[in-house]
């Protein structure tokens, strides 16, 4: 039994090391966020035609002018291994999407090659656009359209629904799963289960000593580093004119939102 436990422990430590290295390839570094554009739409993945990008940008400009709520759309060719949820939130913070003090900004990010999307909401919108609404838009609006190659349709409908939700006029049709991203954390979940099983077995072994199992034990603490360092990106404006965008007013993000894949 001792040999089995030692082997199990060594394997668990190896998995811990692998998970740490793979999840934090550039620990301590920030993501490489594209330069803030002058438009609410940055289409680096070329998912939209010129006219589609122009129409979408004009809609978002008009909405921000009328309400001060900022909705920004970003498409990237690839995240190059960066976690989309953290990347989207960091982009919203760095660009200052929304108004300072109101934090009324939202970022819709699509990664073409990863086939993933995420909607992040600022602090001020987390009440009107909770994770349930963001998840509903990802699953039932964006995903079906994206699977058919209709990127403009999915983005246009999702942003219009976000506008309705910010006014309290949209209700999610389903409750989201417990994970923020559809199927995105399965490897992490398996690893966590493995570690829990390891400590359950070792605690039982220690508890079988001569103290009758009444042993006070300190908790085991894991520090999970935030992945950093995104190697892609680049700047750019919209290139279409139509005036600037007033939605980069210093808004902040706390991590609210939901995402998935198509």
From TrEMBL:
Domain TPM: residue ranges: 41-162
Annotated TM spans: none
Source species, domain of life: Bacteria
Protein name: TPM domain-containing protein
Organism, scientific name: Longibacter salinarum
């Amino acid at each position: 039994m001792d040999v089995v436990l030692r082997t199990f422990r060594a394997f668990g430590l190896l998995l811990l090391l692998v998970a740490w290295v793979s999840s934090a390839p550039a620990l301590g570094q920030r993501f490489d966020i594209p330069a803030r554009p002058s438009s609410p739409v940055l289409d680096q993945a070329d998912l939209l035609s010129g006219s589609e990008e122009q129409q979408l940008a004009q809609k978002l400009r008009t909405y921000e002018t009328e309400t001060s709520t900022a909705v920004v759309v970003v498409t990237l060719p690839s995240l190059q291994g960066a976690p989309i949820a953290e990347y989207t939130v960091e982009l919203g913070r760095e660009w200052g999407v929304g108004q300072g003090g109101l934090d009324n900004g939202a970022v819709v990010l699509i990664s073409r090659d990863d086939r993933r999307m995420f909607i992040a909401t600022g602090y001020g919108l987390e009440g009107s656009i909770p994770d349930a609404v963001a998840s509903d838009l990802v699953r039932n609006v964006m995903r079906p359209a994206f699977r058919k190659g209709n990127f403009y349709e999915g983005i246009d409908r999702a942003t219009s629904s976000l506008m309705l939700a910010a006014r309290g006029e949209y209700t999610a049709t389903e409750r989201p799963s417990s994970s923020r991203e559809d199927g995105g954390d399965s490897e992490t979940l398996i690893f966590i289960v493995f570690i829990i099983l390891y400590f359950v077995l070792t605690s039982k072994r220690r508890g079988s000593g001569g103290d009758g199992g009444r042993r006070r034990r300190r908790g085991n603490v894991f520090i999970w580093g935030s992945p950093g360092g995104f190697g892609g990106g680049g700047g750019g404006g919209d290139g279409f004119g139509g005036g600037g965008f007033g939605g980069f007013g210093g808004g902040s993000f706390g991590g609210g939102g939901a995402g998935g894949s198509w």
